Amino acid sequence: MGKGDKKTKRGKINRGSYGVRRPRIKKKIRPEEKISVDKKAKA
């Protein structure tokens, strides 16, 4: 168990792959990005 193991988080990091043990992190959409910043500045 360790770096060479495909099923562990450390092994996934070492191989540069993803899976159940190492899911991809999704970017959260910020409320500022939804609303245009120019409208706030003019008002």
From TrEMBL:
Highest classification ranks of the organism: Bacteria, Pseudomonadati, Bacteroidota, Flavobacteriia, Flavobacteriales
GO cellular component: ribonucleoprotein complex; ribosome
Renumbered residue ranges of the record's region Disordered: 1-43
Pfam families to which the protein is assigned, alphabetical: Thx
The protein's name: RPS31 30S ribosomal protein S31
Biased composition (Basic and acidic residues): 30-43
Family annotation (InterPro entries): Ribosomal_bTHX, Ribosomal_bTHX/bTHXc/bTHXm
Comp. bias regions, Basic residues: 1-13
Source organism: Bizionia echini
NCBIfam families per record: ribo_THX
Family assignment from sequence similarity: Belongs to the bacterial ribosomal protein bTHX family.
Entry keywords, A to Z: Ribonucleoprotein, Ribosomal protein
